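[job 0412] stage=fold_complex status=start
inputs:
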Amino acid sequence: MWQVLRDNPRALYWSLSLHLLFGLLLFVSIRFMADPTLAGQTPKVVEASLLGDRAMEEMVARFRAEQSRRAADQEPQDAKSPAPPPAPADDAPEAAEATAARVREQAEQAARQAAEAVQAAAAAQRAAEAQAQAQRQAAEQAQREAAAQARRAAETLARRNAELAAQQQAAEEARRQAAAAEREAQAQARRQTEALARRQAQEERQARETAAAAAQTQRQAEDDARRMTSERERIRQEQERLRRIEMQAERLAAEEERRLAEEESLQRIEEEARVLEQDDRPRLAMTEPQRTREADAQSTASSELFSREADQYIPVIRDKVRQFWTRPPAQAAELSATVSLRLIPGGEVVPNSVGVVQSSGNAAFDQSVIAAVYQAAPIPVPSGPAFERFREFNLRFTP
Amino acid sequence: MRMTPVKPTLTRSPGPPPCPPAVRLGALLALALLLAGCAGAPQEPEPPVAGTSARPLSAVPSAATPVAAEPQRPSYRGPWEDPSNPLYQRTIYFDYDSVELKPQYLDVIRTHSAYLGTTKGQRVTLEGNTDERGTREYNLALGDQRAESVRKLMLAEGVGPDQMATLSYGEEKPADPGHGEAAWQRNRRVIIQY
Amino acid sequence: MNANERKSISRTGCHDRGGHHGQGPLTTARCLALSAVLACAALGILGLPTPAQARLTIEVTGGVEAAQPIAVVPFGVSEGLIPKEDVAAVIGADLVRTGKFRALPTRDMMAMPSTAAEVDLRDWSLLNMNSLVIGRVEQEGSGYRVSYSLFDVFGGKEIGSGSLSSTAGGLRSTAHRIADEVFEKLTGQPGVAATRIAYITSDGRGSGQTVTLRVADADGSNPQTIVSSNDPIMSPAWAPDGRRLAYVSFENRRAAVYVQDLASGRRDLVAAYPGINGSPAFAPDGQRLAMTLSKDGNANIYVLNLQTRELTQVTDHFAIDTEPAWSPDGTQLVFTSDRGGSPQIYRMSAAGGPAERISAEGDYNARASYAPDGKSITMVSRINGQFRVAVHDLERGFTKLLSQGDLDESPSFAPNGSMVIYATIQNGRGVLATAAVEGGGSQRLSQDAGEVREPTWSPMIK
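[job 0412] stage=fold_complex status=done
writing structure:
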């Protein structure tokens, strides 16, 4: 073997490499099937809303005015009152956060003030005590002086008994007065400490209140922001829906105008034919499309006499109301209900004006009819004098 | 790795084979182990090389217990329970929606008729069944008609009328509860119940 | 617009009504009216009053058939009371099961009023709800008092209310009664949520099989065992007073028909003839029982008088005659017969006589039973090899398929005629299903284990 390998170095290299390769593969494991790892974290969803609405700006301005007013109130007690930073024309939550931070700062300051007040109260109390003590010492001094005077008077006792008595009385008087003065001093000192304590408590309470008010304004700001976004969402959806319906009504009106010309000519021919045929040949198998077309023709014919412009809106109204009508699964298909309704110019339905003129006998059917009218609002109506015909009218529903 | 040019002497000399058997075997073994190592998936169970040798050696009788000459005869209630007896075959099958007796079952019926003809005290119940298609009560009537076909033939073959009763279960007692033609075929039957 | 009209009309299935009946005189009258109007207009247009005085009426036809939206607000409870049942959920499920209503999920409700004073109908009209049900559950002695109010949202007023007393264990059936009252108020039809169904369940296979006849509420809850056996039980049938059940049992290796009193559990063996004893059906007077017997050689229909035990043969034909069902007036019987070569539905007088075939299409029609108004029947029809439940209108002669197949059977009308319950196979197992006759509601009722089959709907519970 070695001979062969020496003779054929390529074989040597191949065998060595193969051995190495197999050895590597045997002792080293390679994962071919690696689990796909998440590339980065999932992004955090941030609820943001766009400003730029006048209402929103007003609200923010209002909030800022309140904020600055409260800051002005606390101005004399603040050593350093931070000026409210200019509100950016951006996210409301950020502004609310800034103001909340500011308010928090001020609350901290108020707390600091309260601490200082406590310290001042303590100092005042000590001063009062010293004062009282000084007063007590003064009283004692007076007392001693009176006693000395009495002793001197005692030397001339024989002569001045009455004076002695009077002097003793005076001394007693003086003692009593001194005691009263001492009591008064003590009372005054006590009153002063009480007043200081009361003021201290009041300041503490004020500090707590400002902190609570700060938290509440913060919460209010958040609520307002949330309500704003949902309001705007709802308004936007409403506008969308209205826009879609308007476009649809316009489209239908255009189609109707186009087809009305054909219908009229066709209908005139049919009327003549029908007038000719209207003897006693029974008309069996009047199919549905013809019946509705006849109904259309009838209502169209009667109104044609009065106003052509308003005519063009009747099929549009009919189609729109039909679109929004979901009726209960019918057992007897001969149900029919008539409702009357009132509109204001523009097509909005006057609230509570939809009433059943002729019931179908089935409460669910009647309900579905009334619901259809409210949901189809605003009804497409003409403007100007042609609107008068649609101020109050009836709708008859048959499945 | 640069290849050195091959010496022309190698091609001419008849020398040892280019891949000695030992190396070949080793390469194959290495390849096999490589594949086994890279599998990653659950390994296949090892071939039961030692399985057969684990079977208990009951074939070799031990010297202590005497071996019985032949197994005990089970007791049957009648010849129809003995698998070796032609009477064991007691089911007659039918086509869909049909009450006709198929020719391949006529022998079965005749066998039983012959037995019953000679054993006057023996009574049977002819149980008619159908597959699950269709309504239940109608199938009850269909099963009854099938049992009736068998009964008429057996009457003609000499079985006494008081020896037979018919009972139709319709689709209520299927032999196979499945929902396909294979199952339905096994359920359309009349059973001669002793 | 014509195309739209035609589309909406075909959606409503006007062709099913066959709108070519009785329209002649109306259209002629309309022609006359139209020409009269035109004539008058042509003659004297100048003196006519201003347009505003002639009230405009616009006709709207078509519309989409759909389940009507209704909100059933979770009922309020008195302080600290936790009722055993969620009354509003039971009511909502009952109304949805009829196929005529769509209930608002609780999570979409913006308010939860429980008294009339708390209701602001604007909340509900915003959600496009047509009707609103609110209520309260209060403790009353050892039981409850449940009161409810039904509002018409767009009409802006209360249109129904009630106050029911309930035992401690009867709260669920009280909820069913309220659902029926609401249903009747809104649709004019009596509700069936408070009725019951009887059905067969089977567990296991072969000799270890257990077959049980059960009675449960119409929504499948509160099942009670009536009789249980290792041998097959079939064909349960309600007596018109809802107090007895007739059924076929194969106990002791023979077929027999029993009539069992539900309250006492006592049962009466009424038929044990040789051969088939099957398909019992109570007459509307509750005194007679029609059934299938084959004692005289082949399957025929007999009527047994339960008082006198007198047996009368009604059909006498060599073909299979089975599955009898009485008309609501008790004068007619429909039954399945293959005298024409394949199973079809026939009708004859209950006293006997000639039979006329009433099923028109298909090569297999069986298991017919009348609707409570007697105007249609439901049956099993085989269409393209699949067994499906169909409803056949006897007056107009057309058939409508209710189920999807392919092994559906045992259809039974609800006692108000608006739904049919039947047995079907789902995932290889037997389950029950209900389908609304009009509209698209349907539901499944299944057991955790084993199979369910042969449902039959009780009469209205009085």
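[job 0412] summary: Chain C touches chain A through 68 residues (CB under 8 Å).
[job 0412] exit 0
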